[in-house]
Structure formats: C-alpha cells, structure tokens
C-alpha cells in the first residue's frame, strides 16, 4: 500500500497563470508547466523573503519537500526564460488556505489574501 498523499498548503492561486515571450509566435512551442505548489515556493522564498524552513512551515510540509519543489521550480523558470517558452502555472498537490480560520492551513506573513484585505480596508477608510 502506498503512502497517503501529503497536500501542500497554498495561500491563494496566482493572479496570472500564463506567461510567454511578447511578440513571438508560440505555435509549436511546448509550454513549461509549473505546478501551483512549485509557484508557491518561488513566491514565498524569492518574493516574500522567507527561508526554506519558514516556507515549509507555511506550506505544512517538510523542509526537504520545499527544497525539492523550489529546485524544480527554478529550473522551470530558467527553461522558460532561456528557451523562450511559454510558462503555465497549473495543477499540483495543494489545498488552498481557508481564510476564515477553519480547516486546513494557517497563513503567515506571506499571506497574499491578508495583505489584499488590508489594502481594501485601507482604501475604505479614506
């Protein structure tokens, strides 16, 4: 019997999931497909400045799992940039955080949803 799947906890889906070279014909070019959980490691480590350990706590997986996903995600980004291939972000083994304080996941300092709600509240108070 195989081991049960360990779902990665993700704050939210990316606002954009399709990227590619501007002004070039993408016909026949195989896209690079990055999973949502790989994207989350890039977002948390490179964009939010978290360590791999902090990222693993946020995603509720082992640090070695984050290390592997991060390495794979970086190689996919490089392939897309260097080879001029479109990049699609889709699929993966993840569950979205429940931002109502129930169920799976608890967002930390890298929570995109929380920062978006703070911006909205700030706009409403002006």
TrEMBL record:
This is UPF0251 protein MUG09_03825. Belongs to the UPF0251 family. InterPro entries: RNA_pol_sigma_r3/r4-like (IPR013324), UPF0251 (IPR002852), WH-like_DNA-bd_sf (IPR036388). SUPFAM superfamilies: Sigma3 and sigma4 domains of RNA polymerase sigma factors. Pfam families: DUF134. It comes from the Bacteria. It comes from Sphaerochaeta associata.
């Amino acid at each position: 019997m195989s081991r049960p799947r360990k779902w990665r906890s993700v704050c939210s889906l990316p606002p954009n999931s399709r990227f590619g070279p501007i002004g070039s014909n993408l016909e026949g070019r195989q896209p690079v497909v990055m999973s949502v959980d790989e994207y989350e490691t890039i977002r948390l480590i490179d964009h939010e400045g978290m360590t791999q350990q902090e990222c693993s706590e946020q995603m509720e997986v082992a640090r070695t799992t984050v290390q592997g996903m991060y390495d794979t995600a970086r190689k996919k980004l490089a392939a897309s940039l260097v080879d001029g291939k479109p990049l699609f972000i889709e699929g993966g083994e993840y569950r979205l955080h429940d931002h109502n304080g129930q169920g799976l996941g608890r967002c930390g300092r890298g929570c995109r949803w929380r920062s978006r709600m703070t911006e909205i509240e700030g706009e409403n108070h002006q």
